[in-house]
C-alpha cells in the first residue's frame, strides 16, 4: 500500500526543495507542483462516470470525474501548501482541516483544530502533509477522520521516513500512501534525513535568520 513515485520531473523538483538556498516563494510553488503531480498517480484509483457531451462536431460519450466526491485534508500547517497543489487539479473538491502539532519534548501529536465538511463517510479523502517522519501526527489525523466516519482515505506526502511508513502501515493498513521519496531515516530530533528541513518554517518563512 506504499507507492514511491519515481518520476524524473518530480525528482528534479524534489532536488530544488532539498536545496537550503531555495527561497520561500519558490519552495511553496514547488511543493504545490509536486502535490499536483502526485494527484495524477493517486487518480489512477478514481472511478469516473460516463456522460454524454456535445463537441463542436457531434455528441459523444466521455468520462466524468465528480470532484465534489473528494475532500482535500491538509494537516496544519505545512499541509496547506500541498492542498493548494491538489486543488489545482480538483478545484471543486471540498476542504477539511486537521490541526496537529508535535510536542517538542515527547514528540507526540497534539490536536488543536478539526473541521470537516459533512458526509465524509461518502467521500474520498486526500490527506496531505509534506513530511512523514515518525508518523505520529499522520496516524493521529487518520484516526480522527475515521472516528468521524471516513472510509476511503489516501495519504500523500513529499518525503517520508521508513519509521513513518511503518507506523501508518501498521496503524492504518487500509490507507494507501503516496510519496515522492523515501529517505534514510530520522535523526535524534526526529527530523527526516536528508529531508527538507522544517518544511513549515520554509513555507511560511518563519526560520530564524542567521
N-to-C CA distance: 42 Å
Major β-sheet profile: 9 strands, mixed
Contiguous helical run count? 6
Shape: globular
Q: Give the class from helix and strand content and strand pairing.
A: alpha/beta
Helix content: 25-40%
Order of helices and strands: EHHEEEHEEEEEHEHEEEH
Uncertain regions: pLDDT < 50 for 5+ in a row?
A: none
The share of residues in extended strands comes to 25-35%
Query: Multimeric state of these chains?
Result: single chain
Report on the architecture of this protein.
By secondary structure, the protein is of the alpha/beta class. It has 6 helices and 13 strands. It has helices at residues 8-18, 24-42, 79-89, 136-147, 162-171, 199-204; strands at residues 2-4, 49-54, 59-64, 70-76, 94-95, 97-102, 109-115, 124-128, 131-132, 152-160, 176-182, 185-186, 192-193. The strands form 3 sheets. Strands 1, 4, 5, 6, 7, 8, 9, 10 and 11 form a 9-stranded mixed beta sheet that branches. The chain is globular and about 60 Å long. 37% of the residues are buried.
Topology:
Layout: E1 2-4, H1 8-18, H2 24-42, E2 49-54, E3 59-64, E4 70-76, H3 79-89, E5 94-95, E6 97-102, E7 109-115, E8 124-128, E9 131-132, H4 136-147, E10 152-160, H5 162-171, E11 176-182, E12 185-186, E13 192-193, H6 199-204
Helix pairs in contact: 1-2, 2-3
Structural features:
globular; alpha/beta; 210 residues
Summarize this entry quickly.
With 210 residues, the protein is α/β, with parallel strands linked by helices. Helices cover 33% and strands 30% of the residues.
Amino acid at each position: 500500500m506504499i507507492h514511491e513515485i519515481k518520476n524524473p520531473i518530480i525528482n528534479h523538483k524534489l532536488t530544488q526543495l532539498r536545496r537550503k538556498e531555495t527561497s520561500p516563494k519558490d519552495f511553496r510553488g514547488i511543493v504545490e507542483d509536486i502535490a499536483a503531480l502526485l494527484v495524477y498517480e493517486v487518480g489512477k484509483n478514481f472511478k469516473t462516470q460516463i456522460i454524454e457531451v456535445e463537441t463542436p462536431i457531434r455528441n459523444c460519450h466521455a468520462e466524468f470525474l465528480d470532484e465534489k466526491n473528494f475532500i482535500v485534508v491538509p494537516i496544519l500547517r505545512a499541509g496547506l501548501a500541498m492542498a493548494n497543489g491538489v486543488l489545482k487539479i480538483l478545484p471543486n473538491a471540498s476542504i477539511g482541516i486537521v490541526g496537529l502539532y508535535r510536542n517538542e519534548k515527547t514528540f507526540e501529536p497534539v490536536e488543536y483544530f478539526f473541521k470537516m465538511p459533512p458526509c465524509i463517510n461518502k467521500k474520498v479523502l486526500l490527506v496531505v502533509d509534506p513530511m512523514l517522519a515518525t508518523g505520529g501526527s499522520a496516524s493521529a489525523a487518520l484516526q480522527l477522520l475515521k472516528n468521524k466516519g471516513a472510509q476511503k482515505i489516501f495519504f500523500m506526502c513529499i518525503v517520508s521516513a521508513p519509521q513513518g511508513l511503518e507506523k501508518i502501515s501498521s496503524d492504518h493498513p487500509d490507507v494507501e500512501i503516496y510519496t515522492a521519496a523515501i529517505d534514510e531515516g530520522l535523526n535524534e530530533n526526529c527530523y527526516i534525513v536528508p529531508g527538507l528541513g522544517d518544511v513549515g518554517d520554509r513555507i511560511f518563512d518563519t526560520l530564524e535568520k542567521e
